[in-house]
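User: I'm writing a tutorial on reading structure tokens. Could you give me a worked example: one chain, its sequence, then its tokens, then a sentence or two explaining what the tokens reveal?
Assistant: Sure. Here is the example chain.
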Amino acid sequence: TPAPGDEPENADPLELGPPPAGFDPEQEEAPRFLTPEDCRALREEALQYYHRYVALLVLEDYDGVIRDTTRNMRVLDLCRDHAIEEGDRKALEQFRPYILMMRARALASQALKDSEPKAAVLALDEGIEALRTYFSTEEGEPDLEASREYQALKSMRDALVPKLPVSQKAELRQRLSEALAAENYELAAILRDELRMLPHTGA
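And here are its predicted structure tokens:
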């Protein structure tokens, strides 16, 4: 296994070759073919990537953080969907909120670096929505707003929103009206939540 930073150009570190015999992409349950040894190796490699993306964040190499967190999210998905042992399917899930948060922070920070505050807010909104989805599926319904990951993204968002053009709220209201007219209630709910998260300025 190559050390982080030594990957061959254009190589996919998660390429596992052809699927196992009998694989049917239409079947309801994903095939279980990752052995405990496979999962252990993936976890150890993911830990190396974790150390690297934390260092890259300090160095403000946001593209590198996005790359490594995206890679580790794929590892979590791979183990969750294809590990043979239940313990291996769950072992990394506790880290999903943290990786989602770090990736959203890096996306937003890169957008700010590129002078794109709207894109930064969008990245944070998507990160918050991903956290909401994760917590809504967890047993015992843990409190999203009490999580450190949610608070980190919300604080960053609250600091950014005042920098947006004044028309942002009007734009969201227009999109909400269009979504309701089109009976796209899922999008309307998201836009409504975005409006509620904007600071009250009397506008």
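What the tokens reveal: The chain has a mean pLDDT of 82. The helical segments are 36-58, 62-82, 86-90, 96-113, 117-137, 148-160, 168-181, 185-197.
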